[in-house]
Amino acid sequence: MKIAITSQGTELSSQMDPRFGRSRYLVIFDTDTAGNELKVIDNEAAVQAAHGAGVATAQTVIRENVNVVISGNFGPNAFRVLNAAGIKAVTLPDATVEKAIEMARQNKLDPIEGASV
To answer: Phi then psi for 70, rounded to 5 degrees?
Structure first.
């Protein structure tokens, strides 16, 4: 399973970013690979966007062929784009990237049914 986690930094120990669309980084992790390889995407363009940050970030996630996105919150436009692409959205407050990955590996995350903000 390929997951994307919104993050304030580029390391496993980084705190998750509570915002999806304006998240500073997206950390991509494939739970099916043996190593702990992370792909980090700088989301600066969306952070600086006047509008449409959620949709732009959702399109980035779609291009990465992600199955699940973990963030603190999802706006309605971003959620709609992710949902249409078949990508599950999961909210997880106040955790590190490493904790989010571990919870995903243990199937302890429940997808949300709609936007959370």
So the answer is: -115, 125
Q: What are the structural domain ranges in the chain? A: 2-105
Query: Across-strand partners of 68?
Result: 3, 88
Q: Residues 6 or more apart from 9 whose CB is under 8 A from it?
A: 15, 24, 25, 97
* Token digits of residue 5: 């986690």
Please give the model's pTM, rounded to 2 decimal places: 0.95
Q: What is the pLDDT of residue 58?
A: 98
Q: Which fold has domain 2-105?
A: Nucleotidyltransferase; domain 5 (3.30.420)
Distance CA 86, CA 83 (A): 5
Measured CA to CA, the distance from residue 73 to residue 91 in angstroms comes to 6
